[in-house]
């Protein structure tokens, strides 16, 4: 029997997004998602969308400019280069009530390939198809023609990304920017990633024609969220060990932590606990197959440990009858506030074993912010210099790993099939998520040819994770004063950020 927490209103109470009621009033930016199979004819997709808008009460856009941000899963990467398909898609979206008198003359389109659409269930697998934002160009793209966002001929191997301007996290006031790295499309299009903008014009007969196409490396998008709301994170991680004070470490390496008042190799408790995790999972779920598991850690400033009473946080225990799902759901409230309090999440890249001074070392993923083109080397140099500058820093909240800070280890929880089925469906909203990196690509060819249209929903995922950037200045603030900035990378599978 699945935990009652999954079938109760705990998730609804926490996020208020599984039972949210949306206003029927039109908003500047619309959103829609299409889940389908690659066997579905392209014309059938356009016809289904036409029929959908014929039945809906949405009004057409009476504005001289119109834009659409079209995100496709990898299976549909080549569809984005089909001029006829994109023309039909843009024509339908820009004249969604089909009164035959569209006033939209100019259309801007941004096409991108992401690792998939958000799952149907909260803890399910990513879906295949398209997810689209559409409306006024100036509302969706604040800087579409920014020269620095275009890709040069020499940047073909650059990993492109899209950044979404969002409201602050809960109990925070700093505006948030969430950067989503795009999918690797080498085997679909021959390009490292796929991100390009195109400009379309309607002629006197009402026909759309593409005037230009430009490859981009970055693009900022404003999904037109409620300015009074917050961005709600959902980070499903199972806490394994209570926070431990870092005794010795430098840069992204943790050497010793304090356990029961004594210096201990950083990996010692993990090495003892992981085999027990395998045993417990095998006993509770006969279908579970032990294998490599990812481990993440929160690096926590000392005052946050005390503020949130983290030393008493309930963690995984071999003798408890409580499921991993229950512990994970209870921890999500705390993790949400930890991000707002300046805690960073890092994946453990390697470590364990060894002897002498190298015994039990743990290497943390040093990446905390999205790198812009040609900035990777400079970023590595800055991190190297900062590591040495932080050796004697009296404030352990600065730097990546600093003695005096705390570290808390977590892993991806194991969900039984019954628990996944019992989890809530994604209510139409705007959501960015993290897809498991080891999963195979969704086999959209085996999906039914039926087209499932989810109105009012935009949701995409990335296997590389999401990069959060909170700043003390508004997204629209043009002040020359330096802004305070907090950045972190969230790459734990099934983590999501819900925007109103």
Q: What does this entry look like structurally?
A:
The strands form four sheets. This protein has a seven-stranded mixed β-sheet. Helix 3 packs parallel to helix 4 (83-94). Residues 1-27 and 391-398 have low confidence and may be disordered. The radius of gyration is 24 Å and the shape is globular. It has 500 residues and is an alpha+beta fold. The chain has helices at residues 4-7, 10-15, 42-55, 83-94, 137-140, 186-189, 268-284, 302-307, 324-340, 376-389, 417-422, and strands at 29-35, 65-72, 106-113, 116-117, 129-135, 161-166, 176-181, 195-202, 208-215, 218-221, 232-234, 238-239, 244-250, 253-259, 262-265, 295-300, 344-351, 362-364, 406-411, 430-434, 452-455, 458-462, 466-471, 485-490, 496-499. Helix content is 21%, strand content 28%.
